[in-house]
Structure formats: structure tokens, C-alpha cells
Design goal:
8 helices, elongated
């Protein structure tokens, strides 16, 4: 609840997006707690934080953690619960005077949400070798601020290389973000799989023209294209129920004038399914739906792959 005060929102959640002043404050508080627990804290080149309690031997560590960054309307326990659960294990070992065989570390991963810098899981992704450090540093938010620049600004670009090391085990305790367990009256679930995720930017282009004098039948209006696409993509998720998901969380209309037909519309698409072959089929359907809609409305389309996990 102390962590939840940082970036607190009127609705009871948190807005503590990656590498903001609020994220820095949350990190600082976590590091203070780790120092108080006598843990050895190191920060790598991606800003990932590792708080280590030594073991009898210096073998591959056991880690437990998650993230402190949030969505703009994030919940106060999302990610934070996994970080502080790891810290609580370490505090409990201290209180009980237990020496473990191997080192144990509580971990904070940087930009796990991807709300400010797309894609998600960049901090853990660089550490795991899935992304390059240079590519991560070049990611920019909507204002043009870069990941690398913001990491420097808040003082969390560490000296330790962001390179993975051998592990004995890795744990992440997490709240349920959906309603399924709660609806069924179950307190604990064991993860058996993960939603495969694909992120896209769907760019639709037409001709900007005046709202009054331009007849409807001759317009090349990307919003009309969008109106054809959306119900078909919602149906695509329904066709792959119960695990198919489709979400449109962001949209940019240019030039953004009330009485001008837009010249372009960019729509973010988040598409998910836990079965890889099904997700691949949904990917193909997405391309076909967008291409067909653009053809029928005399507009142009482009699909930019942002992330495939």
C-alpha cells in the first residue's frame, strides 16, 4: 500500500509508467527496502534491479520478481505483488535466520508493461537476448523521448551488462488480471500456458478533403475502411473463442481536424491466443481482412508488425 501511493489515481489504481518520475520514486522506495534488508543491489544497463541475498555457495541463483511499472490506469497490485512477494521471502529468511544453499534474488524488470515504450517486456527481453540493447535504447514514446535518454534521466542506467546468467529457478507470483478465478470462487491458479501475443499498427491512407463540398461517393476515407475492418476483427476473436482476444487500445487520426476527412488513420491492434497455430491463422486472417477492406473503399493499407511473442 505504501508503493501504491506513488502514482496513485482517483479510481484507486496507479499510473507509474516506465521511466517516469513516478517509476523512479517506486524504484527508489524498493531499493531503500532492499538496503534495509541487507541485500546487495545491482542495476544493469537496462535498469533491471537485482536484490541479492547470498547463499552458502555461489551457484546459479533463484530469482523471484516482476515489475513496478504500470499501465496508465494500472491496478495497484499488478506486477508489484510479484516484486514485493520476492522481497518478503528474503525478509522472512532473514527473520528466521535461515541460510539457503544458493543465492536468492528479488528482481524488478524494466518496462514490462510496454505502455510507454513498445513493445512490452523490453527489460527482461534484452536480458534474455531477445532484443538488442541498442534497439531498446532507441525506442521512443509519443513525445519523442527515448528509452535510453529517460533511463539516464532518472538515474537507472546501471553499469552491469544486461546479459542473462544461469539460473536454478525463476518464480513470479501474480494477481489475476481477469475475472475467471474470481468468478469461479477459486483463490489460486497454476499457470499452464501463456497468451501468445501479436502487436500491430494498422495504417490506413486516403485523401484529406473538406467535409462539406466533397461528395460521399467519391471520398477515399480511411475511417470508412476502419468501419469495415473493426466488426470483422471482433468476429475473428469470437470465431476463436474462448481464448481469442482482439483489442484496439490506441488510434491516431491525421490531420485531426473536425471538418476534414482524414488522410490517414493508425490503429493499434493487440491480438492474442495461447495456441501458436491458431494465432498464426488469426494473423493471416487479419492481413486478408485489412487488404480486402482497403480494396473495397479505394484506400491504401499497411500493417506494421510491432511485436510477436
Amino acid at each position: 500500500m505504501d508503493m501504491a501511493k506513488i502514482g496513485a489515481t482517483p479510481a484507486g489504481g496507479c499510473n507509474r509508467q516506465a521511466l517516469t518520475d513516478e517509476d523512479k520514486a517506486g524504484r527508489d522506495l524498493f531499493v531503500t527496502w532492499c538496503d534495509d534488508a541487507g541485500l546487495a543491489v545491482r542495476v544493469d544497463a537496462m535498469g533491471n534491479i537485482f536484490a541479492r541475498r547470498a547463499g552458502r555457495t555461489d551457484g546459479p541463483a533463484i530469482i523471484a520478481g516482476s515489475h513496478l511499472d504500470t499501465q496508465p490506469t494500472g491496478g495497484k497490485f499488478d506486477g508489484v505483488y510479484g516484486v514485493l512477494a520476492g522481497l518478503e521471502v528474503l525478509r522472512t529468511l532473514n527473520d528466521a535466520g535461515i541460510e539457503t544453499e544458493l543465492p536468492f534474488e528479488a528482481v524488478v524488470w524494466t518496462n514490462e508493461e510496454g505502455a510507454r515504450f513498445a513493445p512490452a517486456m523490453v527489460g527482461s527481453g534484452v536480458w534474455a537476448g531477445e532484443f538488442t540493447l541498442e534497439d531498446a535504447y532507441s525506442k521512443a514514446d509519443k513525445t519523442g523521448a527515448t528509452f535510453g535518454g529517460e533511463l539516464d534521466r532518472i538515474g537507472y542506467r546501471g553499469d552491469t551488462p544486461a546479459v542473462h546468467s544461469p539460473l536454478t529457478g525463476a518464480f513470479e507470483v501474480h494477481i489475476e488480471q481477469g475475472p475467471i478465478l474470481e468468478r469461479e470462487g477459486k483463490q489460486i491458479g497454476v499457470v499452464t500456458g501463456v497468451q501468445g501475443m501479436r502487436w500491430y499498427d494498422v495504417v490506413l491512407r486516403g485523401d484529406a478533403c473538406h467535409a462539406g463540398p466533397t461528395p460521399m461517393e467519391i471520398r477515399r476515407d480511411p475511417m470508412r475502411t476502419l468501419s469495415v475492418i473493426l466488426p470483422k476483427l471482433y468476429q475473428l476473436a469470437a470465431d476463436h473463442a474462448p481464448w481469442g482476444r482482439i483489442t484496439f487500445g490506441d488510434q491516431t487520426v491525421r490531420p485531426g481536424s473536425r471538418n476534414t476527412v482524414p488522410e490517414s488513420v493508425t490503429l493499434s491492434v493487440d491480438m492474442r491466443h495461447p495456441d501458436q497455430s491458431t494465432l498464426d491463422a488469426m494473423h493471416e486472417s487479419l492481413h486478408a481482412i485489412v487488404s480486402d477492406a482497403a480494396s473495397r473503399t479505394a484506400t491504401e493499407s499497411e500493417i506494421i508488425d510491432q511485436w510477436n511473442s
